[in-house]
Amino acid sequence: xxxxxxxxxxxxxxxxxxxxxxxxxxxxxxxxxxxxxxxxxxxxxxxxxxxxxxxxxxxxxxxxxxxxxxxxxxxxxxxxxxxxxxxxxxxxxxxxxxxxxxxxxxxxxxxxxxxxxxxxxxxxxxxxxxxxxxxxxxxxxxxxxxxxxxxxxxxxxxxxxxxxxxxxxxxxxxxxxxxxxxxxx
Length: 185
What we know:
Keywords: Membrane, Transmembrane, Transmembrane helix. By secondary structure, the protein is an all-alpha fold.
């Protein structure tokens, strides 16, 4: 594949998928809801189970937002198109780690989940040619670890709130850059 052709394929995905804005905003909304779950007086194990259930709403919510933002999930004749979905599903491979943490250290479940969520954003920096994804991935992953090490488990609601905030900041960056790129053209 020629370099110019690869760049053209990536640009088409960036424009049609609008740099994944529907997924980023969905993630921000769900992580905000998860922060409220972790404010409750349930056991960490029960909060983790509820977190899994809430997270299952990711694809339906992203699909609904794709209609609002007019994003295209299927770009015909673009050989890179399946990559975005595969990168998203890649985080599912790490779920056995979450199951282990759930069963052995449920207090740390939300930290591990946030680290996995943050880290899975990293390759999108290449696909969307947007350093914001890499920065967000690093800050969520390292920040969640820091919060988990510094705060006691009863304050772990801060981790999903932190994650949600960074996802919303990334979505604002994506939307702002989209607007300013239209002004330049």
